Amino acid sequence: MFALNKKYCYFTLLLFAIEVGIAIFIHDGFIRPFIGDVLVVILIYCFVKTFCKIRSTTAAMSVLAFAGTIEILQSFNLVQILGLQNNKIMAVAIGSTFDWKDLLAYAIGTIIILWLENSNNLDRSR
Predict the structure, then answer these.
(1) Closest CA to 15 of 116, 95, 101, 88
(2) N or C: the chain end with fewer CB closer than 10 Å?
(3) Range of the domain at 76
(4) Cβ–Cβ < 8 Å for 52, 59
């Protein structure tokens, strides 16, 4: 079940660099908050697939559930509950504001993952 997949590792590193670039250099109302959330689901998916040999559907739906759970927990002030409000990196990573649009972005990211995996046959562990 555990194996290093270099292809997904490279995708993870590339997407992480793109996310950092978005966070540092883009301060708009669409790319940073929406496209960044679409890409973060794909980033987490690629990270999981770097180490775990599991079906693409299982990984994608698990990542969607994880992202959705974190988003819903934001409505309960998760950052404050965990006492991380003074840790800027963790506060940004977890997020502090619930937004339905984020759930939409996560769903779109998941659809992109499944479309890419199925249309390009990238996932050899089905």
Answers:
(1) 116
(2) N
(3) 6-120
(4) yes
Nearest to 80 by CA among 65, 68, 69, 94: 94
Instruction: Output the CA angle 20-104-63, nearest 5 degrees.
Output: 65
The amino acid at residue 66 is F
| Residue 126 domain-assigned (yes or no) | no
pLDDT of residue 122: 52
Whole-number Å distance between alpha carbons of 28 and 33:
8
74 within 8 A of 98, measured Cβ to Cβ: yes
Which of 20, 61, 21, 19 shows the shortest CA–CA distance to 38?
Answer: 19
> Does a structural domain hold residue 125?
no
Q: Which residue has the higher pLDDT, 18 or 95?
A: 18
Q: What's the average model confidence in pLDDT over 97-104?
A: 94
**What angle is formed at CA 60 by the lines to CA 23 and CA 95, rounded to 5 degrees?**
35
